[in-house]
# Entry
Amino acid sequence: MRQIDDLSGIVVDHAVRIHKGLGPGLLESVYETVLSASLARDGLKIDRQKPIGIDFDGLHFEAAFRVDIVVEDQLLIEIKSVEKLSNLHAKQLLTYLRLTKQPVGLLLNFSGETMKEGIRRVVNNHRPNR
# Structure
């Protein structure tokens, strides 16, 4: 299994190449489709629109939300195509990380002039009280 930082680097490289090739302004679903296929072609395990169940207050909610892309069962990717990333986008991904008990996620916004300005790494430092 690859290290999370290696996976993050691979995903960022693919995202930059895709952004250069397609440019900004397409729907999120287009970037998600192309990025997923590109990563899978390179031999990575990809789950797209992966349904995630959650438990809350003694209840189980099957497929409560969907993660855009999960790479190698450990790196969550949230795709955006918005004018500017907000703190709300990062909070959304952080909540996904907490609920899936994963350490790292990438927030990728394909609408910027360059891809570099649209990349945000989100880290889950959450330690549940025991």
